User: Which sequence fits this backbone?
């Protein structure tokens, strides 16, 4: 457990040397080095986009590195597929649990490597072995016959771990396991992790919550811009300020021009009072004036996307009111929000924002169909003409409005979603992760566009995991932590350190 | 007919930017162009008909028979195209046709029709169809019952109710005005065929030229994105099933007219025929893509096939086997062509 107890000279269980992974147009990992010793909890820390997920995928065999090598107990290994990583002894527990909800606990634990004789599954043996594994993990309360879909999130996590152990995993990768757990469940999880490490299993633990890392971690490695900027720091000795210092100051270019804040007497356009969403967030007050950009910062799971979706009526509020220009909106009605002049660019562009197989112009006009219709009959020529104007104004490429939106790049797809709301001349624009999956060039175009809209008097709310983006784009920032607003103030009074501090520790230092 | 569509194709493409009079041929051309496989299949079937049955097949009265047979299932299939394009499915269409036909021909309805006007029967059939569709749509959209299950339940219930009402007896129609009207053939086209043509044309206009049609594509393509774009997806789903219910009502009137009876056995296996026609017409079962023209071709292919087989004294069972083969071939061919045209 304690790094001092281990012999640092021993061959590490897994070591990563100069790993590089490129995707078309992006270098996701640009030289990663770290090693994991048997029996330790090694934490990975880094901001959104620092390369953590790519690194996990490389370790789990889902991606092949372009350069560099992995060594397992000193020997070079290459994983061609996840199966190879599993048989070597690496088990990954992903954020979205990959369990089959309709099967029993025992069936899930041995899924893909069923115990069988001559093709017949040995259910009793599987049940016994599952029982042993669950006992080992300190969970004799979970029945091997229970349907996995009926278990709590924490217990599903335990089943996932039992599955990894059933394959004799020597190294477990846990990607933000605590994001879906409450405090008691996190405590149980930590107890299980300690039991595992005493047996010599190594754990790579990814989390944004510093207090957790302090409690469970032995050493920490920090990633920034796809590189390791510090590796193997003993958790006990390193200061929080130093960790944040290491994570910040990324080199991605942000082109934020100077900005004139809105006139102080600008009227309030969007007024949210005491908004709450069952179990996700509560007591959110938010006022956005004409021409103002307000940023919402917070970790995944802090409730930031839920706030936007509730304001928009896509989720039903359990309490509170939303007003646009002083008129209260009906709860839980997207139609009412759209008619009142609110537009949303959702977090998941492909699954929530776009009709991927439909033409560009149809995606742009979908929210304004009645404006192009007389007695229900559409004027398709007018639709195409207006869509073409917007496509040219936003510089969407390629320019053909008749092609399926699926064929466009991420940045151009995002512009199509924005064009949809430009067409409506909306009063309030809600942007959830507006630049996720968008290349650098299109990103600065989107920033400019948001600024221009604000200058024209639109009230804008931006949610982003990218702290610099929130600070650069917004006039005022609200910081959310675990469903509550922990800070509100002008963006110019905040910097990246301070926001990360608020987001991760919630202290008003 | 097959010659027409085949020659219309190249001119249709050239007339893309064309002037008003050429629009119709462009329309026909693009419909044929996008459904090359179906046109080909229909042409082959007609050739087979001419070769094996000669003048008995290529006869005006035989062609009209084919069209008349295609009409009833065609109207249902047009409605089905809407529901499937909108991401749903309806297994209860045959049962709704049966229930509507029975309800419209009870002694009480017929008595009222004789006292007032035969349109009473038509209204009864449409109302019953719309009502069943409304129940289906509400269960699917607001009750969150999977469409397959909700309409399976309707299939069982509606046909059962039809049996109860009719007491399992065939109800013969004796409303002179009704029979007289449906026996007419304006311009030599049987009334049934005319109704099918009107329904298909109206369906095409609604699906391609109205906000309702556009929303249908949006809802079928990505319901969550459609919802977040401000479309009331649940209400739209109810409307889609209700529309199909009304189509079933129309089909019930047509089947009453053709057989002069109402019966709980009408519309047997219509759900399969309609879904098959829609699918071979190029409509995606997962929603978001569908054409009325494709569905019409699909219906015509099946009916022509039956006709050719009947003229050659082949059994119903042999027809069924051929039908199955055609479904598979048509879908495979459609996929190939779609991939080649990159769409």
Assistant:
């Amino acid at each position: 457990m304690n790094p001092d107890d281990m012999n640092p000279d021993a061959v590490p269980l897994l070591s990563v040397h100069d790993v590089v992974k490129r995707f078309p147009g992006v270098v996701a990992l640009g030289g990663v080095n770290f090693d994991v010793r048997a029996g330790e909890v090694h934490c990975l820390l880094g901001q959104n986009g620092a390369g953590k997920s790519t690194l996990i995928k490389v370790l789990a065999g889902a991606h092949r590195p372009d350069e560099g090598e992995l060594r397992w107990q000193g020997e070079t290994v290459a994983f061609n597929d996840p199966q190879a990583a599993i048989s070597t002894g690496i088990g990954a527990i992903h954020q979205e649990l990959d369990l089959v909800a309709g099967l029993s606990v025992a069936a899930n634990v041995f899924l893909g490597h069923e115990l069988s004789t001559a093709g017949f599954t040995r259910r009793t043996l599987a049940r016994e072995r599952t029982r042993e594994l669950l006992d080992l993990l300190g969970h004799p309360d979970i029945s091997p016959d229970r349907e996995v879909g009926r278990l709590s999130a924490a217990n599903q996590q335990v089943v996932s771990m039992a599955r990894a152990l059933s394959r004799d995993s020597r190294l477990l990768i846990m990607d933000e396991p605590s994001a879906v757990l409450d405090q008691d469940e996190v405590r149980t999880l930590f107890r299980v992790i300690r039991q595992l490490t005493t047996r010599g299993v190594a754990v790579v633990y990814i989390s944004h919550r510093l207090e957790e890392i302090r409690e469970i971690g032995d050493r920490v490695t920090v990633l920034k811009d796809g590189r390791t900027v510090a590796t193997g720091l003993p958790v006990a000795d390193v200061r929080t300020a130093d960790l944040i210092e290491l994570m910040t100051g990324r080199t991605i270019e942000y082109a934020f021009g100077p900005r004139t804040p809105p006139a102080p007497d600008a009227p309030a356009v969007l007024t949210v009072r005491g908004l709450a969403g069952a179990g996700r967030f509560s007591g959110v007050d938010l006022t956005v004036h004409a021409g103002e950009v307000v940023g919402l910062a917070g970790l995944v799971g802090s409730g930031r996307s839920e706030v936007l979706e509730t304001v928009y009526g896509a989720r039903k509020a359990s309490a509170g009111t939303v007003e646009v220009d002083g008129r209260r909106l009906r709860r839980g009605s997207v139609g009412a929000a759209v008619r009142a002049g609110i537009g949303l660019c959702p977090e998941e562009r492909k699954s929530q924002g776009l009709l991927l197989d439909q033409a560009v112009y149809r995606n742009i006009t979908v929210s304004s169909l009645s404006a192009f219709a007389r007695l229900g009959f559409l004027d398709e020529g007018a639709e195409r003409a207006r869509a073409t104007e917007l496509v040219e104004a936003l510089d969407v490429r390629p320019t053909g409005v008749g092609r399926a939106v699926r064929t466009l790049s991420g940045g151009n797809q995002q512009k199509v979603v924005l064009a949809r709301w430009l067409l409506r001349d909306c009063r309030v624009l809600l942007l959830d992760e507006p630049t996720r999956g968008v290349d650098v060039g299109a990103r600065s175009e989107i920033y400019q566009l948001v600024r221009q809209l604000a200058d024209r008097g639109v009230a804008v709310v931006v949610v982003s995991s990218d702290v610099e983006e929130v600070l650069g784009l917004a006039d005022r920032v609200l910081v959310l932590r675990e469903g509550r607003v922990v800070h509100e103030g002008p963006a110019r009074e905040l910097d990246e350190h301070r926001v990360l501090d608020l987001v991760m520790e919630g202290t008003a230092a | 007919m097959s010659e027409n569509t085949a020659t219309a194709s190249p001119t249709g493409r050239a007339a893309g930017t064309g002037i008003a009079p050429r629009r119709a041929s462009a329309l026909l051309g693009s419909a044929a162009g996008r459904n090359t496989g179906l046109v080909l299949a229909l042409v082959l079937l007609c050739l087979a008909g001419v070769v094996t049955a000669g003048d008995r097949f290529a006869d005006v009265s035989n062609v009209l028979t084919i069209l008349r047979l295609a009409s009833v299932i065609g109207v249902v299939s047009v409605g089905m195209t809407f529901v499937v394009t909108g991401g749903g499915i309806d297994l209860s269409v045959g049962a709704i046709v049966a229930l509507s036909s029975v309800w419209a021909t009870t002694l009480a309805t017929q008595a009222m029709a004789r006292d007032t006007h035969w349109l009473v029967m038509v209204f009864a059939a449409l109302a019953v169809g719309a009502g069943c569709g409304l129940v289906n749509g509400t269960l699917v959209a607001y009750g969150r019952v999977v469409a397959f299950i909700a309409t399976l339940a309707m299939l069982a219930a509606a046909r059962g109710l039809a049996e109860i009402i009719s007491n399992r007896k065939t109800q013969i129609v004796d409303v002179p005005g009704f029979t007289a009207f449906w026996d007419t053939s304006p311009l030599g086209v049987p009334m049934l065929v005319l109704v099918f043509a009107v329904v298909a044309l109206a369906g095409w206009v609604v699906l391609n030229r109205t906000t309702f049609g556009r929303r249908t594509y949006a809802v079928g393509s990505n319901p969550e994105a459609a919802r977040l774009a401000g479309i009331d997806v649940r209400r739209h789903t109810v409307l889609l099933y209700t529309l199909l219910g009304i189509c079933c009502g129309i089909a019930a009137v047509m089947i009453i007219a053709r057989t002069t009876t109402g019966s709980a056995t009408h519309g047997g296996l219509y759900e399969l025929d309609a879904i098959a026609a829609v699918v071979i017409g190029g409509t995606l079962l997962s929603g978001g893509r569908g054409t009325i023209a494709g569905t019409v071709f699909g219906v015509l292919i099946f009916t022509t096939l039956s006709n050719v087989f009947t003229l050659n004294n082949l059994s119903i069972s042999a027809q069924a086997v051929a039908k199955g083969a055609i479904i598979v071939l048509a879908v495979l061919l459609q996929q190939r062509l779609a991939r080649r045209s990159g769409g």
Q: What stands out?
A: Confidence is low (pLDDT under 50) at residues 1-5 of chain A. The radius of gyration of chain A is 25 Å. The interface with chain B takes residues 312, 314, 334-335, 337-339, 344, 346, 351-358, 362, 366-367, 369-370, 373, 376-378, 380, 404, 420 of chain A (CB under 8 Å). Chain A has 17 helices and 24 strands.
